[in-house]
Design a protein that fits this description.
The protein has a 7-stranded mixed β-sheet. The chain has 7 helices and 18 strands. It has helices spanning about 40-50, 70, 75-80, 115-120, 195-205, 220-235, 250-260, and strands spanning about 1-5, 25-30, 30-35, 60-65, 85-90, 100, 105, 125, 130-135, 135-140, 155-160, 160-165, 175-180, 180-185, 210-215, 240-245, 260-265, 270.
Length: about 270
């Protein structure tokens, strides 16, 4: 089982890969290969697939962590690249999402009606966990959320005709069987990493061997980071491969707490989980 970071804000030093603000992972398993998020632009995804020698990899399914364009911008092209692949997501994926920047309202999610119509017949959306391929499933909707979510103040949705803070009910992560344990693969983890871990523990008691991906800890308070450290200490101390929206400050806190167990995960990183 292997996870390759195809797209991230950063790239491995000296590589021929292109960086872009966004995320995409290739998850290779014995049951099939899954593309988790597709990054912001098809040109970046295709370039990095070629640079890594992965352009001919068979893809059994796509999965989308949430609707924001830095994770779904290349989706129209990915649907063409992998015409037989179903797409797994939470039902909230198709709700229009917005960003308020400089006083202007901008689309930030699945506003393209033509894309939504193309996606429809291939979309496997459920609030509950779904098996994508044997040994790899979605978390389903992350609730309840007793701990702080990973929010951005400028994200909005329309509810009852008014723009309100995005509740990120489209956010989901993936769970990968790894021997006698499991690995958690996150997109942005807008639902909150501690909330996601709590949901995971309500679903599965096996040891957590790795957390991979974006964890949206950029705006986490010092108290929240301290509590996250304690929550991770209560686990079997998984290895953390963090990128995208995690933030340098949070990465530093976790590295000071757990040392070499915590590493950055730029595009080009290959994680062999056995």
């Amino acid at each position: 089982m292997r996870i390759t970071c195809l797209v991230d804000n950063c790239v491995e030093r000296g590589s021929a890969l292109w960086g872009a603000h966004g995320l995409s992972f290739l998850i290779e398993t014995e049951g099939g290969n899954v593309l988790y998020d597709v990054g912001p632009e098809l040109v970046v995804l295709e370039h990095n697939l070629r640079a890594l020698g992965l352009e001919d990899t068979e893809i059994a399914a796509l999965a989308l962590s949430h609707a924001h364009a830095d994770h779904t911008g290349a989706l129209a092209g990915a649907l063409d690249l992998y015409p037989a692949a179903p797409v797994y997501a939470n039902p909230g994926l198709l709700e229009p999402r917005y960003s308020v920047r400089g006083g202007e309202l901008q689309g930030a999610g699945m506003q393209d009606v033509a894309l939504v119509e193309r996606l429809g017949p291939r979309l496997r959306a459920s609030r509950e966990p779904q098996e994508i391929v044997p040994g790899l499933r979605t978390t389903g909707v992350v609730c309840p959320r007793p701990f702080p979510p990973g929010i951005s103040q400028h994200h909005r949705v329309r509810r009852d005709g008014e723009l309100v803070q995005d509740p990120y009910d489209d956010d989901m992560s993936l769970v990968l069987d790894v021997g006698d344990g499991i690995a958690l693969v996150c997109g942005c983890c807008h639902a909150g990493l501690r909330n996601t871990l709590a949901l995971l523990r309500s679903q599965d008691v096996r040891p957590l061997v790795a957390i991979v991906g974006g964890t949206h800890l950029m705006v986490a308070s010092d108290a929240e980071l301290e509590q996250l450290v304690e929550a991770l200490r209560a686990e079997t101390m998984p290895r953390l491969y963090l990128n995208h929206c995690t933030g340098e400050r949070a990465l530093g806190v976790l590295q000071r707490a757990f040392g070499e167990q915590v590493v950055a995960c730029p595009a080009g990183t290959v994680i062999d989980l056995g």
